[in-house]
Amino acid sequence: MRLLIVEDEPKMAALVKRGMSDEGIAADVAGRGEDALWMAQAAEYGAILLDVMLPGIDGFEVCRRLRAAGVWSPVLMLTARDAVEDRVAGLDGGADDYLVKPFAFDELLARLRALVRRGPIERPTVLEVGDLRLDPADHRVTRGDVPVALSPKEYAMLEVFMRRPGQVLARLTLLESVWDEGYENRSNVVDVYVRYLREKVDRPFGVASIETVRGTGYRLRADGGCSPASR
Ligand code: CA
User: Fold this and answer.
1) Residues with beta carbon < 5 A to ion ligand 1?
2) What is the mean pLDDT of residues 12-25?
3) Among 88, 150, 185, 198, whose Cα sits 20 to 30 Å from the Cα of 14?
């Protein structure tokens, strides 16, 4: 098991890291929320110890973004204030447990051990881009109130788009996110499936949400294709 410590105070981070190492638990340290985001997506951590007060994006936002990106490592949030609203904000953002600073080190270890034993629990949140809605819990897709039936690959591709609304996604990114490495017919499969998707989530509704970005790939409009200009 590997732990990610997200803490901007070097002394505190070093103390926790040393304590974990005494327990035989290796730990990486991220001093900023932005670093924690890419680190937690690049490697699978057994648990994430997340300080709320960070420079840049705070711990709540880090937790929200990790869950939105499909990272389900258990999160233990460290807060300096024993405020009820902090706890509520953390829970809403997908944290698993809390500890108020200053804390007893033994308690921190006990809580972390419990989280690691339990392991990641997926709590998918519904993705919404404009009036396009995708529920990872039951794989339901709707445009407005209208259900849209998609094949598994179409669904997987739409989910990739909906997790990054407004961003240009390269063909290779889409290919690697949706198809196995060994997939043989790689040359134009992405273009073909984008066409299928448009036929199902756009055309029947008279919108154009999936845009072609010449020479690069595709982008799902951040408004889901719903702004009046696109009609
Ligand atoms: Ca801090």
Assistant:
1) 8, 51, 53
2) 88
3) 88
